[in-house]
C-alpha cells in the first residue's frame, strides 16, 4: 500500500490530502497536509478549517512554537485520518490533533500557514522519492498495522 503525495506548483513542497474525522465532535474535514519531516507534531492550520469549528467547545491547552512565533492550539479529540492509496482508502488512528488558533500568544494575527503532517504520523510510513516519476510516496511501514 502506498499513498502518493503531490507537489505544489507554487512552492515545490509535497502535500498529501486526507480526511480528518473527530469521533467526539462528529465532524469530517478535508485537509491538504504539508509533508513536514521537521515538524514533531501534526497540526491543522486555522486558515484551512471552517471558522464555525473554532466556535465549538474546544479546549485550548497546547502551545506550539515555530518559525512563525508561538500560538495556542485547540485540541481536536479522538481523530482518525483517511488517505487515498493505491489499494483504496486507508485509515489511521491519530489520537488528539492540534488546531492552531488564529491569534499568537501575544494577540497578533497568526500567519496563514499550511496544515502539517508531522513526524508523529509520518513515522508510521516509509517515505520514498521516485526520481523517474518525480513523486513522493508514503508506504505502509511493515511494523505498523493500518486498517
CATH class: Mainly Beta
The percentage helix is: under 10%
Question: What sort of overall outline do the alpha carbons produce when their principal axes are compared?
Answer: globular
**Radius of gyration in whole Å, from Cα?**
15 Å
CATH architecture: Beta Barrel
Based on helices, strands and strand pairing, what is the structural class? mainly beta
State the separation between the terminal residues, measured CA to CA: 11 Å
Mean pLDDT: 82
Indicate the multimeric state.
single chain
For the largest beta-sheet, the strand count, sense and barrel status come to: 10 strands, mixed
Order of helices and strands: EEEEHEEEEHEE
| Count of distinct structural domains | 1
Question: Beta-strand percentage?
Answer: over 45%
List the helices and strands and how they pair.
Elements lengths: L1 E6 L6 E9 L4 E9 L7 E2 L6 H4 L5 E7 L2 E17 L2 E17 L11 E2 L1 H4 L2 E6 L4 E6 L7
Parallel strand pairs: 3-8, 4-7
Antiparallel strand pairs: 1-2, 1-10, 2-3, 2-6, 5-6, 6-7, 9-10
Amino acid at each position: 500500500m502506498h499513498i502518493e503525495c503531490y507537489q505544489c506548483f507554487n512552492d515545490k513542497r509535497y502535500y498529501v490530502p486526507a480526511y480528518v474525522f473527530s469521533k467526539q465532535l462528529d465532524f469530517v474535514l478535508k485537509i491538504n497536509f504539508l509533508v513536514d519531516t521537521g515538524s514533531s507534531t501534526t497540526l491543522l492550520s486555522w486558515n484551512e478549517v471552517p471558522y464555525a469549528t473554532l466556535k465549538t467547545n474546544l479546549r485550548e491547552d497546547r502551545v506550539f512554537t515555530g518559525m512563525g512565533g508561538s500560538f495556542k492550539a485547540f485540541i481536536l479529540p479522538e481523530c482518525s485520518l483517511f488517505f487515498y492509496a493505491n489499494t483504496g482508502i486507508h485509515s489511521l488512528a491519530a489520537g488528539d490533533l492540534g488546531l492552531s488558533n488564529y491569534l499568537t500568544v501575544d494577540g497578533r494575527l497568526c500567519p496563514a500557514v499550511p496544515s502539517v503532517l508531522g513526524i508523529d504520523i509520518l513515522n508510521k510510513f516509509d517515505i520514498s522519492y521516485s526520481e523517474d516519476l518525480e513523486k513522493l510516496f508514503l508506504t505502509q511501514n511493515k511494523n505498523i498495522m493500518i486498517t
